[in-house]
Design goal:
The structure holds 2 protein chains of 2 kinds. Chain A starts with 20 loop residues before the first helix and ends with a helix. Chain A has 2 domains: 1-67; 116-352, MetI-like (MetI-like fold, Orthogonal Bundle). In chain A, 25% of the residues are buried. Chain A is built from 14 helices and 2 strands. In chain A, strands 1-2 form a two-stranded antiparallel sheet. In chain A, α6 packs across α9 (215-243) and α11 (260-288) packs antiparallel against α14. Chain A is mostly helical. Chain B is of the alpha+beta class. Chain B has 2 domains: 7-238, Rossmann fold (3-Layer(aba) Sandwich), CATH 3.40.50.300; 245-355, OB fold (Dihydrolipoamide Acetyltransferase, E2P). The longest helix of chain B has 18 residues, at 171-188. The radius of gyration of chain B is 25 Å and the shape is elongated. Classes of the chains: A mainly alpha, B alpha+beta. The interface between A and B is medium-sized, with 17 and 25 residues.
């Protein structure tokens, strides 16, 4: 961006100017700290807020006077990002080192106790590990199912056939539905008394079919619903890769008398590899956070409790805020390790190939 | 064609339309085994579609394709023994040069060592040995071109189709590659069908040329035949550089004398098919016009422009009613300059006479 224009010299620290943000920070800090000591908490809260607004205004005026419009334009987005994402993230990291419950007034620093409790406590750790194992199982099953179905759908839609456009829209709709709506659909499908699934099975066996009465059935029900929703996402990405392969390469391969299998691996696959990796990454992270379908379909029963749903219970329903924060940071750590592993493998492949 | 010659390729009445666009309209030609055959015509005349029909990538709407005497119109691409170099090269971007070469051999029952041997042979022949481990997009245009060529040659195809292979190269490389292609043709003796919009390429490389127009062959023959006896104004205008001069004329009553703004021009033979008074176009090549010698009766004209080409110079002259282009030796061109008055001599025997209405040659 443009440099400082000659008409707006950098003000000295104590020069009173609307764009002197250093002075604004200094004054803001002093006033806020003083008000915290001197005034009742309600008043201090608003005064600190006003000081923050003043500093922000000084930054805006400074940016405006220096023609730093680019920064000015992204500032709202960054502010929202900070308030909504970065601040809560850091705040919860802080909370994980304290003993704090959202329904109680007391707060006490306990260091890493929350983490050791979550990971090693003889009562809590086994439950957490079991839920983490369940989550891993869901990650493997749902992602595999989505990748396979999405990939096959993409292969199908890469070709031209009648009604392709309309079918494509139809196939994409699950992805656009609210998870709650999809969950309700499937809870009706799976319902033992009036569900479609039970109805069809009753035609053969004459008996009601309770899909959710064992772990395999419950897991299958959830995996199927999740795959139904998110396979189209994988398909979209793979389809983008498939249509980007230049047609003349296939023609050259046809003239070179290359078989379909070799043609796929040496021509098509390099074009979709990166996108497949991306789909895998997105879907793994999402699957790791799965709670919604579990809540809607099984309420975590029959061994379908995931770590995310467990976390919601601990933090929101049992008000164990600090413990919840510790669990979520362990989860975050696992996800970061996993995704970096993916990226590492993907990058090494690209360089090696 | 004379007896005893085998046709490698025979196209008979091929038509092909894409939606409303007619790409080929009754295209027919045949190629004798081992010939270097040039398919010549401006872009979008159907050359590429013709080649793609031969490979089988395009199924013609009507007409037959014969390869080595077998009708392959409905046969699959595999087994035609035809290889093609695409205008875009169509190299496999994710494979090394080595793998690009080896690719067409992978599906055949050929051992690894044999493949390796043939790849190295081909690379040596095309001077690409030091590039085998590189990916195509790291190579220069000329190298990519040679990789594309090598990939086609490595299978030792009976018929090699080249679709404007030199269009994407610079002038110097084009010149080198022309010689290279001729050399490869002599070395391997395969039949080559070479599509090009470039007159110079067609004339310098093609042992036989088919001139295409609107999806059909207008005239075919050796370069000399096309140059000496163009069948219509289209071919006359395409073959030969600079282009043939065209003069409007009216047929005289005895069908040998033609009235033009340059005076009467007498044809070398009686034009029987012409009607007296019929409009005609007289074509004369720039090389058949010269400055009138001392004592010769020439056409008075003014020199307009000189275009030196090295050993010869193209001179545009204004006769008052027509602007004609002529080719004079460099030595003669040094003595003249634009604006100067001169007198030119047209060799009446060298005139090509076309019917003005159809553009066909009149005999």
């Amino acid at each position: 961006m443009s440099a400082i224009t000659p008409t707006t010299p950098v003000p000295g620290l104590f020069e009173i100017q609307a764009h002197n943000w250093k002075l604004a920070i200094l004054v803001g800090l002093i006033v806020s700290v003083l008000s915290m000591f001197a005034l009742p908490p309600e008043a201090a809260f608003w005064i600190t807020g006003a000081m923050a607004a003043m500093v922000a205004a000084a930054f805006v005026v400074n940016a405006y006077r220096r023609h730093y419009y680019g920064g000015l334009l992204v500032a709202p987005a960054i502010a929202v990002l900070f308030v909504m994402n970065i601040f809560p993230l850091l705040w919860s990291l802080g909370l994980s080192f304290f003993a704090y419950q959202s329904n109680q007034q007391t707060i006490r620093f306990v260091g890493l106790t929350n983490y050791t409790k979550v990971l090693t406590d003889s009562l809590k750790a086994p439950e957490n590990w079991a839920n983490l194992t369940n989550t891993a199982m869901f990650v493997v099953l749902t992602v595999t199912a989505q990748m396979i179905v999405g990939f096959l759908l993409a292969l199908m839609f890469a070709k031209q056939f009648p009604l392709r456009k309309y079918l494509l829209i139809l196939v994409l709709t699950p992805m656009m539905l609210s998870v709650v709506a999809a969950g309700v659909f499937f809870s009706y499908y799976y319902d033992p008394t009036f569900g479609l699934l039970s109805y069809f099975i009753r035609l053969f066996t004459g008996e009601q079919f309770i899909l959710m009465d064992n772990k395999a059935g419950a897991v299958a029900g959830i995996v199927f619903a999740d795959a139904w929703m998110w396979s189209p996402f994988v398909m979209l990405l793979v389809l983008a890769g498939l249509v980007s392969v230049p047609k003349y390469l296939y023609e050259a391969a046809a003239i070179d008398r290359v078989s379909g299998w070799r043609r796929f691996w040496s021509i098509t696959f390099p074009y979709i590899r990166g996108l497949l990796m991306l789909a895998l990454l997105f879907r793994t992270i999402e699957a790791f956070k799965m709670a919604d379908l579990v809540i809607l379909l099984t309420k975590g029963g029959n061994g379908t409790m995931t770590i995310s749903y467990h976390l919601i219970r601990i933090a929101n329903e049992q008000n164990k805020t600090s413990e919840g924060a510790a669990i979520s940071y362990v989860m975050l750590f696992i996800v970061i390790v996993l995704t970096n592993l993916y990226l590492y493998i993907a990058n090494r492949r690209t360089e090696g190939a | 064609m004379s007896e005893g010659l085998k046709y490698a390729l025979r196209l008979n009445g091929i038509s092909k339309s894409y939606d409303t666009v007619r790409a080929l309209a009754g295209l027919s030609f045949d190629v004798i085994e081992g010939r270097f055959f040039a398919l010549f015509g401006p872009s979008s005349v159907g050359k590429t579609t013709a080649l793609r029909t031969i490979t089988g990538l395009v199924k013609p709407d009507s007409g037959r394709v014969e390869i080595n005497g077998n009708d392959v119109t409905d046969a699959p691409i595999t087994g035609r023994g035809v290889s093609m170099v695409f205008q875009s090269f169509a190299l496999y971007p994710h494979l090394t040069v080595y793998e690009n070469f080896a690719y067409p051999l992978r599906e055949e029952k050929i051992g690894r060592e044999e493949i390796d041997k043939r790849v190295k042979e081909t690379a040596t022949m095309l001077k690409l040995s030091h590039r085998l481990e590189r990916k195509p997009n790291t190579l220069s245009g000329g190298e990519q071109q040679r990789v594309a060529l090598g990939r086609s040659l490595i299978r030792r195809p009976k018929i090699l189709l080249l679709d404007e292979p030199l269009t994407n190269l610079d002038a110097k490389l084009r010149h080198d590659m022309r010689a290279e292609l001729k050399r490869l043709h002599r070395q391997f003796g395969m039949t080559i069908v070479y599509a090009t919009p470039d007159e110079l390429e067609a004339l310098s490389m093609g042992e036989e040329i088919a001139v295409m127009r609107d999806g059909a062959v207008v005239q075919r023959g050796t370069p000399d035949e096309l140059y000496e006896n163009p069948v219509d104004m289209y071919v006359a205008g395409k073959i030969g550089s600079p282009h043939m001069n065209m003069i409007k004329a009216k047929t005289g009553s005895d069908k040998t004398v033609f009235e033009t703004s340059l005076g009467k021009i007498i044809s070398k033979a009686k034009i029987k098919s012409a009607e007296s008074g019929e409009a005609a176009m007289l074509g004369i090549r720039p090389s058949d016009i010269r400055f009138a010698a001392q004592g010769e009766v020439g056409i008075k004209s003014t020199i307009q422009m000189l275009e030196p080409l090295g050993d010869v110079t193209v001179v545009s002259v204004d006769t008052g009613s027509e602007t004609l282009r002529m080719v004079v030796p460099e030595s003669a061109a040094t003595m003249i300059k634009p604006g100067q008055a001169t007198s030119i001599y047209l060799d009446h025997k060298k005139f090509h006479i076309f019917r003005a209405s159809s553009g066909q040659v009149m005999t």
